[in-house]
Specification:
Blueprint (H helix, E strand, L loop, with lengths): L9 H4 L3 E10 L9 E11 L5 E10 L10 H7 L13 H18 L4 E6 L2 H15 L6 E8 H9 L4 H7 L12 H21 L8
Parallel strand pairs: 1-4, 4-5
Antiparallel strand pairs: 1-2, 2-3
Helix pairs in contact: 5-7
Length: about 210
């Protein structure tokens, strides 16, 4: 780990933010009414040379909240069967409690002020996460209430691609479309993509910034 006063420290790199890669799979597009079915989170770490890497991960299949809507076209798209008794799903509260515990620990250890969601088309995941937090009455949400790092936008700038699969392929990563739309797989791919974009900027001489 780099020294905390180094420009290679995580909190220095992202202005005190602690980036956490998130992907959420749902039964629709409305964060207030449609079920959250899967969530995965990956924390990141910066080594002594200032290179960003995968750190810890958590993944949960989630029970639809009471009264939630589940649209057949969304379920056909992500291939999730919420009624499957073998899903071993947990409640929204259980999933968020475990993820927030991991995130708070990482935020503190890296001297960051607040966590920020990293996601592909991040507005979608941010809205569903915040709606779930409100629904279960979760206190002390570690994530910023509106700021995100969107890898779709970053990939459009750096790679000329905005689709996750195409962005991954553009940097030489394999992308298995048969595994896509699993929260865990998409989070892992998004984490690799974000790390490569950040590290590529460093390799090109963009970080640390010149005076």
């Amino acid at each position: 780990m780099p020294e905390l006063n180094s420009l290679n420290a995580l909190y220095q790199r992202f202005r005190g933010f602690y980036p956490v890669v998130i992907d959420i799979e749902t039964a629709g597009l409305n964060a207030k009414t449609d079920a959250l079915l899967e969530i995965a989170a990956i924390t990141l770490q910066m080594d002594g040379g200032g290179w960003l890497h995968h750190n810890q991960s958590l993944y949960f299949k989630v029970q639809p909240f009471k009264g939630s809507l589940m649209h057949s076209n969304a379920l056909a798209f992500n291939g999730i069967d919420p009624t499957n008794p073998l899903r071993s799903a947990v409640s929204e509260y259980e999933a968020l409690h475990a993820i927030f515990k991991m995130v708070r620990k990482g935020t503190k250890e890296n001297s960051c002020q607040r966590a920020v969601i990293v996601a592909h088309n991040s507005t979608f995941d941010h809205k569903f996460l915040m709606a779930a937090v409100e629904r279960v009455g979760m206190k002390h949400n570690p994530f910023h209430p509106f700021a995100t790092f969107d890898t779709a936008a970053l990939s459009g700038l750096v790679l000329g691609q905005t689709v996750l699969a195409k962005a991954c392929e553009a940097i030489g990563m394999n992308f298995d479309k048969n595994q896509a739309h699993s929260a865990l797989y998409d989070t892992e791919q998004t984490a690799k993509l974000f790390c490569e974009l950040v590290n590529r900027w460093k390799r090109l001489g963009g970080w640390p910034p010149s005076s």
